[in-house]
Amino acid sequence: MVFTHPPKAKARAALATAPLSTHASHAPYARVKNFLKTGLAKGQWVPGDQMPSEAELVQQFAVSRMTVGRALRELQAEGLVTRVQGVGSFAAHLSRVSSTLTIQDLHDEIVARGHSHHTKVVLSRQEVAAAELAAQLGLAPGGAVFHSLIVHSENGVPLQCEDRYVNPACAPDYLAVDFQTITPTQYLLKVAPLWEAQYRIEAATATAQEAQLLGISVQDPCLIVIRRTINRGVPITLARLVHPGTRYQIAGEFKP
Questions:
Q1: Are the C-beta atoms of residues 67 and 32 closer than 8 Å to each other?
Q2: Are 241 and 158 in contact (CB under 8 A)?
Q3: 135, 192 Cβ separation under 8 angstroms
Q4: Residue 99 to residues 5, 8, 177, 208, Cα–Cα distance (Å)
């Protein structure tokens, strides 16, 4: 499964004057919203930059102020825009986008349950990126890549084996971080806020090393998450998160 936020719609000069459609994606407010989203995704407005004013957008798209207001309110709700009454709208810091992607940190989940979280750093080092890994992280084959292998435990019981590769250009100080005091996810969200995340979730068995680190049999079922994060086209990290099936579950709630 792939989750991308915001959508990578391509900006075109004729966007503002395209024929209207009754389809939601072509509604007047959606055209304004997509125009602004595309500019943010391409870095046209960096965090803190003032966005076009409501009056400018009204004139450019030949729509009402109410229509422009709806587009800006939705962007604000998604964490992409900050609005200051009487001043204008500004590009939000990308860490706010990260939060809307609901990238959950295991430490926070464990602490929220009132339990104790502990990490065991098995390795943290620089390695040579093989061709397939280099392609995933946008690196040259044979280039440097940071690699960490960490076991997360809840109340002393191993809950997750985190095997992570990091693009050095996005987090040059990654190997100097004390992962006993901050998790890789917490650190990376601070220094390399993401714009896009791709997931794959599967039920499979752990490798021999992962099984040993988790204290399970190689035949035991596991929940495995493969996650890659990207910031404006630049890959940040590729992680394999392995959870013993009997110790971890995905739960949620939906209300229409």
A1: yes
A2: no
A3: no
A4: 11, 19, 22, 34
For 227-252, write each residue's pLDDT tens digit.
999 987 899 999 999 999 988 776 65
- DSSP states of 87-101: TEEEEPPHHHHHHHT
Task: Give per-residue burial for 60-72: e unless 16+ CB within 10 Å, then b.
Answer: ebebeeebbbbbb
Q: Which of 93, 44, 94, 90 is nearest to 236 (CA)?
A: 94
Structure tokens at 227: 């996650």
Angle between helices 65-77 and 54-61 (to 10 degrees): 120
Burial class for 96, CB neighbours closer than 10 Å (0-12, 13-18, 19+): middle
- Inter-residue contact 195 to 94 (CB < 8 Å): yes
d(CA 117, CA 102): 20
Amino acid, res. 113:
R
Q: Which residue has the tokens 């024929």?
A: 19
CA proximity to 208, closest of 196, 200, 198, 220: 220
Q: Lay out the sheet containing 221-231: strands in order across.
A: 2-4, 196-205, 221-231, 234-244, 157-166, 144-154, 117-128
pTM listed for this prediction: 0.62
With tokens 């990290």, the residue in question is 237
All structural domains of the chain, each given as residue ranges with its CATH number in brackets, are 2-92 (1.10.10.10), 105-244 (3.40.1410.10)
* β partners of residue 149: 123, 163
Per-residue pLDDT tens digits for 12-45: 222 233 333 334 456 888 999 999 988 888 889 8
